[in-house]
Amino acid sequence: MRLYSSFLQSAVLVSVVLVIAGCSISYSSKSISDSTSSIVSSPSSVSGKSKHYQNEVADYTMAYVKSSQPNANYSTFLKGLSEVAAKEGVTHWEQDSLTYIGIGKGLKKAKVEGIAYETYKKNFAQSDDTRMEEIQIGYESED
Amino acid sequence: MWLNYKFVLFYIAFVAICLCSALASAASFEYLYVEANEGNSSGGHSALQLGDEIFHYQHHDSGFIRLLKENQQDFHFQYRFLQNRRIHSSQVEVSDETFLRLRDHFKLQFLAQDQQFKQLHRLHKDRALLHVLLNRQDAVVGTDFATILRLNAAGLFYAEGELDRQQKDEYIGLVNVKPSQSFSLLGMLRRKIEQHYGQDYLSRRSEQITAQIRSLTPSDWPLEQSMLAVDKFPPAIESFAERYTDHLSGLVAIKVLMEERMLRPDAFLLTLEAVIPEEKEALERLRDQLMLSLVKSIHSRRPDWGYAVLVNIARLVAIDMTLQLDQWVFVDDFGMDSEWISADELAQYAESMQIQIDDALSNWMQMRKVLLSPGDLTEANYSKLEMSANRYFELLKGAWQPAIRVVGEKALPTKSIAVPDWVVPELTQQQLTLALSALNSYEAKFRQELAGYYRYDLITRNCVTELFRTIDRALLPLSQADVDSSKQPKYITEESIRRLGGHISAGYNFIPFVSFQSVQAQYRVMNNVILDSYRDQQLKKQLIQNDRLTVSLRESNTLTSTLYSYHPGDAFFVFFTDGNAVLRPIAGLFNTAAGIGQSVLGLLTWPLDGGKNFKSGATGILMSVPELLFFNIRKGSYKYLSYNQFVRDNASKY
After folding, report:
1. Least confident of B152-156, B203-207, B305-309, B422-426
2. Are B65 and B456 spatial neighbours (Cβ–Cβ below 8 Å)?
3. How close B11 gets to chain A, by Cα (Å)?
4. Which chain B residue's Cα is nearest to A29?
5. Do B643 and A33 touch (CB under 8 A)?
6. Distance CA B261, CA A114 (A)
7. Does position B23 have pLDDT exceeding 50, yes or no?
8. Is the separation of the CB atoms in A31 and B640 below 8 Å?
9. How far apart are the CA of A118 and the nearest CA of chain B, in angstroms?
């Protein structure tokens, strides 16, 4: 009887711990979906894919801008942009107008305006007129 | 007539008011409760779906709790299919503004945390470099410098250690290299670069980079009172080690061009698949585009231009080989951390692997068609084509190789080598010692702050509590963010009630299914849906198509089930207990006995399997005990399922 009672107490304890342990055991494991989802589920249209990339760039830009000053060191920003582009399989992001349109969207999402906006625009575009225009297009297109 | 007119006006006004109300609350998000199962998140899990992205927290091995952002299909495939768990989805009605606020905040927090942990990783690399420069490798006991500092994509052209074996002055010999006379592809590229930037451009660039490396100084790691916040990037500090490896990558890229170096044999995949004429035309255009891009990239000022040039030279060579041979050739894009599967395991999962091969073939054919679509000849699509080809042809190798890579393709090739010892920053011992000391102080403070925000705790900081805390932070009115923190809870509660219908306290809701009940009780839930697990779906199909009693009996246990096969990833069990609750304790008894049996067997096989069987048996007992008390946790899981089939079967939901 005493043995049964101990067993029951242990069973309850184990059950409670397991139930509470919502996410206590976690590991990083690769899955088939890691490599196939971008192929199987990606939007079939060019505009769908480019929109996803723009949004990723915009989100990253917004997050960066909210944490920094307009004249901050941009190397870390560029490294982060490379990482965002790399996930989409893109290396030539700096030659891609979608990147700058995304940056413009991100600046608008971060509610940057006035002199701060002009400074970011010039720095992100490295003073290239075409790039600055593309950033402006992205900025104006964002609600 | 006048009365009719008034009635019509009243009716129009009434409809307009209803429409406005509907528009004000036109959005929704889903609160997801994932049922329990053995292994990952054994007690269940919680997540928030905002649009087509799902945010959830997970406890990592590092001891921290991390916010993850996943594509909804990936999340569902992982949890509902592979882990075989039902998901309970509650649709919560919110205004458009609230939805955007939640979504933007979760994205911001995800990105901020991601950057914070990336900086921690960079600090680790900086430390490794400083130690090597100080010639104190013994101080990094257990850490292999060669595994920490790598040159990505350089491994496509050079073997591990090959660059070290070269004389250090060999690469400097580039200064006096004659203009290229070669008509090889890389010779042509080199000539284009020289025409564009000058005859000795590559030599000058090489000298410039060398000088930059020599004059590199360690990063400035300023100690501030508070470095981190959950919704801000960490201080923008350029990593010393990354500046060094970026410069070295540039030197290697120039070296590849100067030597007109070919891809290593293990760096590319030669298929026997013929290229059709339309594909050849597309590839010729792509090759020309790549050449133009490379001419620009070599002159880029972005920090990682060297890596980009290496990847694109490799792809240029692969595309050119494809055109020369009329057979598809691709750069190997499997990462160094790819998951391997042995021939024995392949044989064990022969049927599942054939489905994987069929899926891979379908994806590979699909991407070939995409490349031919007007406007779709993009770098991103070529990357997907490369990934799909790598996957398909690697799986085919399973027929004759002892082991293959089953998962691990990357969107960009990264085959790496350890940093060669050509040239190092010229720093004195004193400078290095001071830098290491500053780094130590910075890293200690950094880790302390990280732990303060993200140290996992079973009850006070887990995947459920952090979800609600993030919701609270998202809803905190901007005007109140700087207010006395003691007043913030009141504002948060008010906002939560106004926007979501109620407030759920993280402190009292740390158990997944309890939090799910709270969501039902507190939030403005419009709709509840139970999304079937993989086994649920298949079982329902069988019950419709066959005799119910036969199916129920056959599928009740792992010995006769056609829907589940035991695999070592699960602890062995006899009966499924997620169905009939009344018989659960009886089934649990058998399962507990099975777990004990596996543990005893495990003791005998310990010398052969390192305790794997024993551990599995012990887990089996642990999972079976709750069943004796009518709780169900374990449901069995699947190692290999068809992702394509999952997308097809669930297309209407996405």
Report:
1. B422-426
2. yes
3. 33
4. B339
5. yes
6. 50
7. no
8. no
9. 21
Nearest to A37 among B61, B237, B643 (CB): B643
Does the distance separating the beta carbons of A14 and B42 come in below 8 Å? Answer: no
The CA–CA distances, whole Å, from B199 to B402, B467, B584 equal: 50, 59, 80
Per-residue confidence at B38, pLDDT binned at 50, 70, 90? confident
Partner-chain residue, chosen from A14, A23, A39, that has the shortest CB–CB distance to B387: A39
Q: Name the token pair of B187.
A: 């010779």
Q: How many CB atoms lie within 10 A of CB B15?
A: 10
Q: Number of A:B CB contacts under 8 A?
A: 226
Distance from CA of B82 to the nearest CA of A (A): 9
| pLDDT tier at B611, thresholds 50, 70, 90 | confident
B354 shares contact with chain A (CB less than 8 Å)? no
Tell me the pLDDT tens digit for each residue of A38-76: 666 554 555 566 788 999 999 999 999 988 776 667 888
For chain A, the average pLDDT equals: 81
Q: Which of B424, B452, B465, B432 is nearest to B211 (CA)?
A: B424
**In a mutagenesis test of the B interface, which of A28, A37, A39, A108 is the best target, namely the one with the most B β-carbons within 10 Å?**
A39
- Buried b / exposed e across B134-147, counting CB within 10 Å, b at 16+? eeeeeebeeeeeee
B125 near B148, Cβ under 8 Å?
A: yes
The verdict on B533 touching A (C-beta cutoff 8 Å) is no
Query: pTM of the full predicted structure?
Result: 0.91
Q: What is the mean pLDDT of chain B?
A: 88
A42 vs B contacts (CB less than 8 Å):
384
Lowest model confidence (mean pLDDT) among B35-39, B147-151, B167-171, B453-457: B167-171
Which residue among A22, A36, A62 sits closest to B44, beta carbon to beta carbon?
A22
Nearest CA in chain B to A16: B626
Which residue shows structure tokens 């901020």?
B112
Contacts of A34 in chain B (CB under 8 A): 74, 407
What pLDDT does residue A23 have? 61
Cα A54 off chain centre by: 10
Rounded Cα distance, B281 and B296, in Å: 23
Closest CA to B45 of B346, B467, B398: B467
Q: Convert the pLDDT of each residue in B242-265 to its tens digit.
A: 999 999 999 999 999 999 999 999
Comparing alpha-carbon positions, the chain A residue that sits nearest to B628 is A11
> What are the boundaries of each domain within chain B?
2-117+448-531, 566-634
pLDDT in tens, A107-143: 999 999 999 999 999 999 989 999 999 999 999 999 7
Q: Do B60 and A126 touch (CB under 8 A)?
A: no
In order of A138, B283, B306, B385, B642, the CA distances from B368 in angstroms are 31, 11, 29, 7, 21
Write the secondary structure of B16-75 as one string of H (helix), E (strand) and C (coil).
HHHHHHHHHCCEEEEEEEECCCCCCCCCCEEEEEECCEEEEEEECCCCEEEEEEEEHHHH
